[in-house]
Specification:
single chain; 241 residues; two-stranded antiparallel sheet; 10 helices; 69% helix; elongated
Length: 241
């Protein structure tokens, strides 16, 4: 929900830059508008569990396109956010839709962008496939500068190995905040390597056409989100002759 509110704020700011009386929309405005439409179904799912009237009002308003009423949309979203926080404070669980919304909000932005649309369309296995490809096939090689190998499990295991790089062209990822060589550092490195290898096995299953329930997708996306965060935050260690 915070993501959608932020996108709407950006979209409104972009709209104000346009020449009054023209229908010419900038590429940025069009991109933000498309992003809003992609995020909206997930937010409406949450609204339906919080307050039926808010869900109905969100469905009724026109979203996207030139000149839509930003203030009305933002008012509805802030009202929904307030109602959602009140329910959370009261200890009421919002179910899978609320968990998905919270998880997507917490994801690294690049991962959020690739899973938002399939989740909004309730294509849960597609969302996990997109996350797996992004994290293991794209983010990890881009971070290490080492081309993807034959096995994603081996790639991520080598990246987070406790051993230093043994040859030119090899690099290691080091979790920040731990004293190198300490017990906690060893645990952090081994934990990241093991999580990455588990994520690679999940990737294999979903890439082979395995379908997923909402609950399965939620749990697996949480794995890829955590791995993406650890890769993003890691320092790169080069080979030292």
């Amino acid at each position: 929900m915070d993501k959608l509110i932020g996108t709407l704020e950006e979209c409104r700011a972009e709209w104000k830059k346009l020449i009054p009386g023209t229908a010419q929309l900038s590429p940025t405005y069009r991109r933000l508008s498309a992003d809003i439409k992609g995020q909206l179904p997930l937010v409406i799912d949450v609204a339906a569990q919080v307050r039926d009237d808010l869900a109905s009002r969100l469905r009724a308003v026109r979203w996207g396109g030139p000149g839509f009423p930003f203030d009305l949309h933002l008012e509805l979203l802030y009202e929904l956010k307030s109602a959602t926080l009140s329910l959370k404070d009261a200890g009421i669980i919002l179910g899978t839709a609320g968990a998905f919304e919270a998880l997507v909000d917490a994801m690294p932005s690049a991962l959020r962008d690739v899973v938002a649309r399939p989740l909004a369309e309730h294509r849960f296995a597609d969302a996990v496939r997109a996350a797996a490809i992004h994290v293991l096939d794209q983010q990890l090689p881009r971070k290490t500068g080492v081309p993807r190998g034959k096995s994603a499990a081996e790639d991520v295991s080598h990246a987070f190995s406790r051993e230093p790089a043994k040859a030119a062209g090899q690099r290691r990822l080091r979790r920040p905040g731990f004293e190198p060589g300490s017990a906690d550092w060893n645990s952090a490195q081994e934990g990241a390597a093991n999580l990455g290898m588990a994520a690679a096995k999940l990737r294999n299953l979903v890439m082979h056409g395995r379908e997923l329930s909402e609950a399965d997708a939620l749990e697996q996306l949480a794995v890829f989100s955590l791995l993406a965060r650890w890769i993003e935050e890691a320092a790169v260690e080069d080979f030292r002759p």
